Amino acid sequence: MHEAHIVAGRLKSEGIPAMVYQEPGASAMGITIGRLGEVKVLVHPRDYDAGVAVLFPQEPDALEDDTRRIVFNDDEESVGDE
Hints:
This protein is of the alpha+beta class. It has a domain at 2-58: Alpha-Beta Plaits. 29% of the residues lie in helices and 20% in strands. The protein contains 3 helices and 4 strands; from the N terminus they run αβαβαββ. The strands form 2 sheets. The protein has a two-stranded antiparallel sheet with strand order 1-2. A two-stranded antiparallel sheet has the order 3-4. β3 (70-72) and β4 form a beta hairpin. The longest helix is centred in the first third of the chain and has 12 residues, at 2-13.
């Protein structure tokens, strides 16, 4: 349940309306397995593709081609460009 709220919060921070859903009564009875224990993050179908792009970016650390990155190597005392 906590992870679902984190995911929904991430989507909301990007302007994508989202809500966390669990079968009514399941959490009150402490059911955490099976179909009643499922927790879902719901978004409108029109926002699904945008939500997937936010949660699973294809290249999360991609830099522009002309951007340089400094890499610190813990094994040696050298600093180099990647």
